[in-house]
């Protein structure tokens, strides 16, 4: 079963079934073999003549879809109900079919495109499911893919789309000269728009990446790249490992015992104050573990660099 979207009386575009058409074409032109009933691999030209003829004369079930954009959407939603769910970009390709989509698919939706080996380093997905095309459109349109496709539907070139996409890829590969697995699937379009005018020394950037990758306290390596681009200030991107419960309880017990002996608060910052909390003994549930020396300034996440602060002071301290 194959679905075509009727563009005009003389032109059709594949709505669903591109892989089926491609596979059939590749098989009958001897690009790959299949296993026959005897368990032997057979190319099309090595099959018996009657079998080849039967394959070539078999009628396919074809649907021609035409109508308003809303009608096409409804057609599209019913396709492959029992198979792989169709994604949003496939729907948009059908709704805004025309010369622009045809050219865009020619560039971004063919698995034979040699550039995919570079794109896959930064983009998750596959060409067949339109995910490279979707990312290119997302980047150039700043997230307004449908609006962009509507405005360019009848364009006879995709120059802006290709140029912008390549600019993002080139910028990323120039700033981060060593590829890491965690770079795949990041919001490179947003990062490009935010940081492309900032000067970066690729060698220094590489050193920073390696340093952060070697840090055992960093839980989120995907955040390393935006952290560096943003000036290495937003530690929330890295999800720096927090103190475990055993460490918290041990430090709390020590601080509380010393505070009771001195008749001061077990929150060191409350003890320095002049308000009613100067001598308050906080319950452990009302306190947070804090780095004495901030992680970003070289402080370790271990018992020797841990102090318990009341929640108010811990929030106020931040990264000071």
What does this structure look like?
- The protein is mainly alpha-helical and 320 residues long.
- The chain has three domains: 142 residues, no CATH class; 71 residues; 73 residues, no CATH class.
- The chain contains 15 helices and seven strands.
- The strands form three sheets. It has a three-stranded mixed beta sheet with strand order 2-1-5, with helices on both faces. Strands 3-4 form a two-stranded antiparallel ribbon. It has a two-stranded antiparallel sheet with strand order 6-7.
- A hairpin with a 2-residue loop joins strand 1 and strand 2.
- The radius of gyration is 30 Å and the shape is elongated.
Query: What is the CA–CA distance across the termini?
Result: 64 Å
Kindly give the count of domains: 3
Dominant shape:
elongated
Average pLDDT confidence is 89
Q: Structural class of the helices, strands and pairings? A: mainly alpha
Q: Could you estimate the helical fraction of the residues in percent?
A: 40-55%
Order of helices and strands: EEHEEHEHHHHHHHHHHHHEEH
Number of helices: 15
Please indicate the percent range of residues in DSSP E strands (runs of 2 or more). 5-15%
Please describe the biggest sheet, giving its number of strands, its sense, and whether it closes into a barrel: 3 strands, mixed
Secondary structure tally: strands: 7
Multimer state: single chain
Using the CA coordinates, give the radius of gyration: 30 Å
Low-confidence stretches: none
- What order do the strands of the largest sheet run in, or round the barrel if closed? 2-1-5
